[in-house]
Every structure is written in C-alpha cells, then in structure tokens.
Amino acid sequence: MATDLQTIKDAYSRAGSVRGAARILGLDHTTVLERLQKAGIDTSPAARHARALEAVGYDLRPVDDSPAAAWDAHRNAFEAKIGERLAKADRIIRRKGPFVIFHATDEHVDDDGAALHLLEQDIRASHDMGAIMCHGGDLLNNWPMGGKLAKQWAEQECTKSNALKRAQHFIDIFRPDVWVDGNHEEMNPYLADLFAQWLPPQTIRDYWRCDFTVRVPGGRDCRVALSHKFQKGNSWFHGLHGHLREMLQSEERDVYLDGHYHQAATMHHTLPERNHTALLVASAGYKLVDHYAMRISRGGSLPKLTGRAHWVLVDPFADDAAYLATPYACPRQAMAALNGLQNLRAA
C-alpha cells in the first residue's frame, strides 16, 4: 500500500531530513524526495533551517515596507546611539575637598621584570590618601601564542594560569575607579570579558580611553582624560607630544594621563588662544627590567623608578590663575602635599 502524503510530511517534520524520513518509513529516499517536491515542499538546507527557527518563535517573513515606512522604521536610532555615547562620555566622580588621582599603567604583573612589591606599596599608599584609582592598560604581558613574544613568555617564571590569578589579585587590591585596557589586552580579547567580571560594578570603563570629571561642591571641576596612549605625535623624543596633539584636537580636559611607551614625563601646557591650561602626564609603569621597555623608552640600562606612576594632587579651590593639578612621582611627597593642602583649605 502506498504511503499517504500526510504520513510522509509527518515523518519529514520529525526527522528533519529526507533520508531520516525515508528510514522512519522504510522507503527509498528518492521516493520520499519526489513526493515532497510534488507537494511543493522545499527540502533545501536553507529551508530546513528557516523552519527550525520559525518553530522556536522567529518570524522570518519578509516585511514589504514602503520607502517612507522604511525611513521611519528606525529614524530615532541615531538619537539612541548618540545618547548612549554621551552618557558614557564624561562620567562624574564626587569628592569633598582636595584629592589625589593615582595613575598606574603598564604593570605587566606576569613579567619577571615587574616590581610587584613596589606596586603593592604604591597601591597601599594611594588608598591611604583616598586617591581616585586609575588603571591605564597593559596589566598583563599576555604574549601571543607565536613568534618572538611567545618565546619571551616561555622564558618567564610566571605561568599562564598564575598570570590570570595575578591579574585578579591586582584588581582585588587596586579597587579601580577608572579602567582602560591596553594593546596587550587586545592581543587576546577574552581578557576583556574576564576583567569585566572581576572589576567592581561602579568602575568607570571604556575602550582605550575614558573621560571623567571630578566634582567638588563649591570648587572647580577637574576634567580628566585617561588613555592607554594618546595618538602619538611626530617626535620620538618628546614624551608628551601625543598629549599636546590630543589637547589641541579634542575637547578641553584639565588632566591628560597615558602610558604605553614605558617612559615618564610631566608638563603644564597652556593654549593662550583658548585661555586653557592642562597638566600632561605620561607614566612609565612597573616593568622596570626589560629590554624592550628600555629600548622604547629611549635607552638606558638601569631600572627607572622615578615616574613609574604618578600621584596628581588636585586643588579644586585654587585661584583661576593657579594650577588646578600638580604631579608627584613619589607617594610620600604627594601625601605630605595633600595633608598640607587639606589643612590650608580647612583653615
């Protein structure tokens, strides 16, 4: 007796393929295929996938909009996108008086040349000051899995497993307020997801650069740009050339912080045509013994302790003609200056 069409359809629906239906019915697959095609059923892989998606609720029917309807369908997408961007563009941190911003970058905590004990001491000193904790990228070496860098990682004492544990411990003790990733994190993007899980929920974070404003009641706002590296200028010998270019081309900030090149530099710079002065800071990081770091920081064979990080003291009640922010390369000096400034403002 010939198998009726409905039975063949049911078997095809259950099996999901012509050969599967043929096995269920004990028929030759060409017979099943011909009966389905005569019934107008598309048995192509694309059609099967579409039916599977429709079965779980996806609506794959084409929408035949008029040109005007297509224009109106998502006309507010730009407003939504720009609103989301502006909401992240300049987030607010609040303080009650003079404060310190701790700029730590390029820690490379899985490298044998990273001064972990010194980093711990600097973190503790910064927390003692109630500093705003800013991480500027390249927490790990995170070498790629091939080439010269992979060989260098193989020569390091820290294993890949311990590298991730060190990263998590750093986040636990650092307790960042602001965070950007660097190029070494970009080498393996999965790290971004791990860091997102480990970072405190209130952490201000963005890709490569974060802008934030520190607001003190009755005082001047301090607008900060934290980047792993501002776009470099044409000079390899001016550690702040990228900062100057950023200051000229971007929205006005009061403090510009970056790293990446493992060199230290600070400077107050004024744009007289705008009547605007900013503090420019480059920090060298904690990878103090490394051939590559020494080469890109313009020579030298000794560890560069000065400028490994910076403590930026901000006086929101400074006169308009006075500097809003002052950099220190030593936490003890920053602490002494903060205590003196707090006593002055309290009086």
Walk me through the structure.
The protein is of the alpha/beta class and 347 residues long. It has a 6-stranded mixed beta sheet with strand order 1-6-7-8-10-9. It has a 6-stranded mixed beta sheet with strand order 5-4-3-2-11-12, with helices on one face. It is built from 14 helices and 12 strands. The protein has 2 domains: 1-73, Arc Repressor Mutant, subunit A, CATH 1.10.10; 90-346, Purple Acid Phosphatase, chain A, domain 2. The model has no long low-confidence stretch (mean pLDDT 85).
Shape: elongated
> Number of helical runs?
14
- Characterize the main sheet: 6 strands, mixed
Order of helices and strands: HHHHHHEEHEHHEHHEEEHEEEHEEH
* Helix/sheet category: alpha/beta
Our Rg estimate from Cα atoms comes to 30 Å
User: CATH H-level name of the largest domain... which superfamily?
Assistant: Metallo-dependent phosphatases
Give short descriptive properties of this protein:
40% helix; alpha/beta; 6-stranded mixed sheet; single chain; 347 residues
Draw up the topology in text.
Layout: H1 5-15, H2 18-25, H3 29-38, H4 45-55, H5 67-73, H6 77-89, E1 91-94, E2 99-104, H7 116-128, E3 132-135, H8 148-154, H9 160-174, E4 178-180, H10 183-186, H11 190-198, E5 204-206, E6 209-215, E7 222-227, H12 241-249, E8 255-258, E9 265-271, E10 276-282, H13 291-296, E11 310-314, E12 325-328, H14 331-346
Parallel strand pairs: 1-6, 2-3, 3-4, 4-5, 7-8, 8-10
Antiparallel strand pairs: 2-11, 6-7, 9-10, 11-12
Helix pairs in contact: 1-2, 2-3
